[in-house]
Write a structure and sequence with these properties.
The protein is α+β, with helices and mostly antiparallel strands. Helices cover 40% and strands 22% of the residues. InterPro entries: AaeA-lik-b-barrel, MdtA-like_BSH, MFP.
Length: 394
Amino acid sequence: MNAAAKLDDNVTKLDVEAPPQPQPVAAPVAVAPLAAPAPVAAKKPRRLGRLLLMIVLPAALAIGGGYVWVTGGRYQETENANLQQAKVSIASDTAGRIVQVDISDNQLVKQGDMLFAIDPEPYRIALAQADAAVAVARVGIEQLRAAYSQAMAQERSDASEVDYAQSQYDRAADLAQKGINAKSSLDQAKNDLDKARQQLAVAEQGIISAKAALAGNPDIETDKHPTVMAALAARDKAAYDLAQTTVKAPADGVVSQASSFKVGQYVGSGTPLFALVETGDTWIDANFKETQLTHMKTGQKAEIVVDTYPGRTFEATVKAIGAGTGAEFSLLPAQNATGNWVKVTQRIPVRLELTDADAKMALRTGMSASVTVDTGVARGLPAIFGHATAGEAQ
């Protein structure tokens, strides 16, 4: 064992003392420059900035949103609005054949402009007949006056006959009492007196009849007599019918649905022929949510923006607020007595009147519009706690 240990020690010394062998030189390898590590002191400000951003930004948004909410609520807006104009159905009050047409479809007309004319000749003839009837009625009244005068004269004559017959009867009675005259003469005198009295009664009835024919007033004016008044009314009706053969525009507007209206067409009385959309009577029907009507009142100012003129604003005022929601006036109102009821915010129509008269000519019925009403009342801080704002108190 000692010999082996010595041998190992010699080999180890030889390995240590042997000169180093030359090693092959490896090719140089390019090494990417390493990024300089961030200083430890810079991490704290970045973390602080992030923390401040996470706190300040939500707080700013909350404050800004709260300010907008508190100062808002004064202007109530809706896009559920349409412009409306009165639509008049044009019809003729008289029947006849069209002889003249002065309008065309979508033509702008003014109040009093002639639209069309019906053949007036039959109505001229009817007017002439009515004039003749008036003249005949006036002549009849003069005849009634003459009959009344005749009845008065007859009554006076019969009254004289009664007086004469009475005197003859008295004389005959006196003579008969004295025995000078025969009884037959007394009977004849009595018979003559009775006849005279009967004739006087007939004459008095003739006066009453003649007076009644004069409407109980012998001095009545001719044109005040009922017969003449009836004839005059018939004459006025004939004159009115003749005037209605020329149909004129009842208001300023645009003619609509008149493309098939032509000369030669026969029209009946009261039959709708075409429509006239009045440009002078323009309003807006805006459907606001029921939650938007808290402070809305008639007379408040509003602004209208029509989709046709997006860059133009029209001024208006609140004219009226509807009596109920649209569901209340529908043909089949909703029945909420069942158990599947779901609360839905209802809309109530609000009518607004345009205050700019010149703007009405540029608008057409049915146009879509956006409405903004100035209620004059903002929410304010007290609204959060349920108190009235200064605007509400006013």
